[in-house]
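One example copied in:
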Amino acid sequence: MLTVAMVGCGAIGGAVARYLANHDNVRITAAIIEPGMESRAREVFGEEVEIGHVFDDIATSVDLVADCAGHPALRQHGEAILSRGVDLVSVSSGALADSDLYDRLAAAARRGDSQLRVVSGAIGALDVLCAASIGTLTRVTYRGRKPPQSWRGSPAETKLDLDTLSEAAIHFSGSARIAALEYPKNVNVAASVALAGIGFDETTVELIADPALERNIHEVVAEGEFGRFEFQIEGRPLPDNPRSSAIAAMSVAREILRPTTQIVI
């Protein structure tokens, strides 16, 4: 039986719990949450779940921790979890654009002989980029196209009139590192592509607001020694939160289940 502690109890955490409920070889035994979210955590994960506000509050031993709470949670809890020798699964790839945080988490993982396992999130085909990075990658471009309303709360609001936009418009073009730092709530996908391929500084990112779209579209183009690769996904949101990707939650559940599977792809 694989025991799991969840960080966060929002839309993605709730979806992960529902996906794992069908597997009797995994059990969520603990939750690390913000103060005031205790009732929500018990509603999502069950009445018997142990609740804490930091990892050291959790008395029950767990095999794995899954972070579904975003960049601040990874910054707050990541080092403590990894240094204690517990693997950490996270969707918060964009936080790793902060090179200081990246180095601290890597050092904590070395101390604890553990791993930070970054999931693919809302994108796919990262296995191709990971494999291609063993050889020579000459170009990796990520393009994120979303309806204007999906960019609310981001720097796009200061660059475009999202209410009156009549055609697709680019509001960011630059490196994955700058994109992740400027758009922390919007570009985990770009960060995951960068981590899988040629890094934050060499990966090119374009962010586009397109009023013709109803769903988010993520595109990756890569070239290198392996050949040429293109990938596109049109993602559906979670039913209870239109800002959260269904496939992102599925990718967390899949990564949690990997240690329980005898034949792994």
Notes: Residues 5 and 30 are 4 Å apart (CA to CA). The chain has two domains: 2-118, 126-236. The mean pLDDT is 95.
